[in-house]
């Protein structure tokens, strides 16, 4: 990537954040996101530095939330989160009114929600599983996601304009039960970054940094197991849940005190719905452990 093609202000932001990325290696290693390639981190930094919204797209357990948390730390900005579901409503986004007491008098106060807080404070807003929300709910924040960066609070009629530094990071798992396709108007408001599973040496590093497992041979076997699971998912033999990196890390931790195959059973196999998939994963585990 030729950073000289970017505006000078963005070049400076990018260089500062890349330096911060180096300075924050301990933070990343202690639970942050270890990207499969530097390009993912650079692209996200550039987009956010330019005031773009980013949409992290990838399978469950690939590290999208950790990626968002790491970006928040690198920019040194707080992050307010919205967890989408069919029950998501305007109050969940903007806030709600409640009764309070001032000098023994009952009053009505407004408690700001994540969208309001993030906009006023110039921090990040993280919208998790954005395609789980009802299609009629998200248009409320269309103005937040485009050049206007403005919204009228339906509960107070206050016009809220985002402070400098405000940014939006969303995450999406496509094809899961309960999800709906994003409409084009919403999708066009984001820069999309595909977040794949990490593999090989980077996964080995993540296991070393994020779990208490120290047995090098076991770690090597878990890395191989993960690769086999990801391959099976790509071939349509397993659902994406089976290859969750989050579940694999749980198995690594449990294997310190439990036999590895039992750790895999509790962390991965028992989460699967189909007996065929359970048997497939157990057979893979049998060949390695």
UniProtKB/TrEMBL annotation:
Pfam families: AAA_5. InterPro entries: AAA+_ATPase, ATPase_dyneun-rel_AAA, CbbQ/NirQ/NorQ/GpvN, ClpA/B, P-loop_NTPase. It comes from the Bacteria. Residues 50-196 form the AAA+ ATPase domain. GO terms for molecular function: ATP binding; ATP hydrolysis activity. Belongs to the CbbQ/NirQ/NorQ/GpvN family. This is AAA+ ATPase domain-containing protein. It comes from Oceanobacillus sojae. The gene is yojN.
């Amino acid at each position: 990537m030729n950073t000289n093609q970017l505006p000078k202000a963005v070049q400076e932001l990018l260089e500062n954040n890349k330096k911060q990325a180096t300075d924050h290696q301990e933070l990343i290693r202690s639970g942050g996101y270890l990207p499969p390639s530097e390009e993912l981190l650079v692209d996200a930094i550039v987009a956010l530095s330019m005031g773009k919204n980013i949409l992290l797209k990838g399978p469950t357990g690939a590290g999208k939330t950790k990626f968002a948390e790491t970006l928040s730390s690198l920019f040194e900005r707080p992050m307010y989160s919205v967890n989408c579901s069919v029950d998501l409503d305007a109050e969940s986004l903007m806030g709600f009114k409640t009764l309070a007491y001032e000098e023994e008098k009952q009053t009505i106060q407004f408690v700001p929600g994540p969208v309001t807080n993030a906009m006023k404070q110039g921090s990040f807003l993280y919208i998790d599983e954005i395609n789980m929300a009802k299609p009629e709910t998200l248009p409320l924040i269309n103005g937040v996601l485009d050049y206007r960066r403005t919204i009228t609070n339906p509960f107070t009629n206050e016009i809220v304009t985002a402070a400098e530094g405000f940014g939006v990071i969303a995450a999406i798992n496509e094809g899961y039960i309960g999800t709906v396709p994003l409409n084009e108007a919403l999708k066009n408001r984001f820069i999309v970054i595909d977040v794949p599973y990490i593999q090989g040496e980077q996964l080995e590093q993540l296991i070393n940094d994020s779990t208490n497992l120290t047995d090098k041979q076991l770690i090597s076997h878990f890395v191989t197991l993960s690769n086999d699971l990801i391959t099976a998912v790509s071939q349509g033999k397993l659902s994406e849940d089976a290859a969750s990196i989050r579940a694999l890390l749980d198995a690594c931790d449990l294997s310190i005190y439990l036999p590895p195959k039992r750790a895999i059973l509790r962390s991965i196999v028992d989460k699967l719905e189909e007996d065929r998939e359970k048997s497939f994963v157990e057979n893979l585990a049998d060949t390695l452990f």
